[in-house]
Amino acid sequence: IFSRLERLEILSSKEPPNKRQNARLRVDQLKYDVQHLQTALRNFQHRRHAREQQERQREELLSRTFTTNDSDTTIPMDESLQFNSSLQKVHNGMDDLILDGHNILDGLRTQRLTLKGTQKKILDIANMLGLSNTVMRLIEKRAFQDKYFMIAM
Q: Is the pTM here over 0.70, yes or no?
């Protein structure tokens, strides 16, 4: 068919100029019809093949003899159980780490309050001893600088 269409296309180009356009249009229409018919044929063959395959599978299923389950039918749960227990251990370990971090932060807060109270008492004692405000400001400045020094280390 395709070779005939190519031959027709060559012949249409040899037509006189006034008939050439009409001849090409008819050849193009024939090409389109051939492609359309080929597509329809492929679709038909595909549907027929699918229907035959379904019938074959249906016959296989109907002719098959079913038996009880073998003793080999088991579910591999050992790996799942080990994975689950590992996840639970990791979860518990993370909870312990979070609890330890919380306890450390609480201890630091308590130490901070204790040190603030001690600093206030020392300043009160220094004030009672009559140290000047200048000396007390120098002591506070030194404590502030020591704090930055400790953070840097």
A: no
